């Protein structure tokens, strides 16, 4: 089977839309036919795919419970094919927080799931104060004050390191390529 015939599923959980943007970017790099599905929609059977990537955003220190529930229900299937996980957060705006050991939110999440992703990407998210509700704006401003981030509520900053995302996708391509040779 050539890599062009391979199928990959990207399952995403997005709070404000940035995770879907990253999912689409990854899909364009993959050497496979890619389906992108929200965690809120029916998830196709993993048996139809040669690989799977799950991407999820963090809000207030947590990934959505739906993501954890899906993973813990399907971890055996996830582990049986090439797989990867990426997490989007504002804490990962700082390069040192893009490593699991230095990212308390990702570390806590990975400790609570039974799946052990073969590849993990921790990407900076999008700070978009104007798009947030009043509550979110206040909470994120408080978090940014504590973490010495921007607090001007007119601020829009994309912290995603697209080279890092491209490397993540290339590493996943290597996983699905090597599977075809085994």
What does this structure look like?
The chain is of the alpha/beta class and about 180 residues long. The chain folds into 2 domains: about 140 residues, Flavodoxin domain (Rossmann fold), CATH 3.40.50; about 35 residues, no CATH class. About 40% of the residues lie in helices and about 20% in strands. The protein contains 5 helices and 7 strands. The strands form 2 sheets. The protein has a 5-stranded parallel sheet, with helices on both faces. A two-stranded antiparallel sheet has the order 6-7. Strand 3, helix 2 and strand 4 form a beta-alpha-beta unit. Helix 1 packs across helix 5.
Output the helix-strand order: EHEEHEHEEHEH
Structural classification: alpha/beta
Compute the average pLDDT: 92
The counted number of beta strands is 7
Number of helical elements: 5
- Unreliable stretches (pLDDT < 50, length at least 5) are none
CATH topology of the largest domain: Rossmann fold
Q: Indicate the overall shape.
A: globular
Portion of residues within helices: 25-40%
Taking the sheet with the most strands, its summary is: 5 strands, parallel
Number of domains: 2
* CATH superfamily annotation of the largest domain: Flavodoxin domain
Side-by-side strand order of the widest sheet: 2-1-3-4-5
Ends: how far apart? 11 Å
The CATH class of the largest domain: Alpha Beta
User: What portion of residues belong to β-strands?
Assistant: 15-25%
CATH architecture of the largest domain: 3-Layer(aba) Sandwich
